[in-house]
Amino acid sequence: MPSAVPATRADRLEALQPIPRQSVNEAVYQALRNKLMHGEYRAGQMLGIQYLADAMGTSTMPVREALRRLVAQQGLEPMRNGTTRVPLITRARLNDMRRARVLIEGTVTEWAAPKLSAASLDRLEQLAIEITAARRSREGVAVSLEKNRIFHFTLYEAGGSPVMTAMIESLWLQSGAYLREKRELLHTDKHPADRLHESTVDAIRKGDFARARECMEKDVSWVFDRLDLDD
Asked: Are 83 and 49 in contact (CB under 8 A)?
């Protein structure tokens, strides 16, 4: 019988490459995170592990890991029966989050502005145009919310502060369930008269970083200021 050809080192390494299970965990986390940020879950809503796993067509393990991460970010809170829920927040707490978001997101915008490349500014400008176009149609709610998230975090990540970006992400997760009640205003004649995303990019191009910060602060506070929440 012919003897087997011995495997080379490269062959052995290739054969032993693990299945990228982490990508499944990350995909589930990103999906749930984005739904929370977009306000697709209402305040007080229970999120069962098995329900989410069935809805997403996955096992319970990546759902458990995603929920654990979201609890750590204060986007969800654990319940005694093993489920998690979207937290209930008082008016005072929401006002506190508004102040924090305006301060932090305005600051990070000013930090990021001088670091943005021409290509990044072109991308932000295109996103701003697409957000405004989507807001003209009620059917464009989901599109505008996702593009809005990409716009903001593309800008914030350019600031080079993972600590501040993580704080912003946590605040978005905590406030999403409440801002959902007013997101429909973005698709009526009640949306901000000035195009704040376009104005932010324009200010950065002109080197007016203080105005870019001011535009971002107005953008963040606009929906908060229209909430009607009892204490």
From this structure: yes
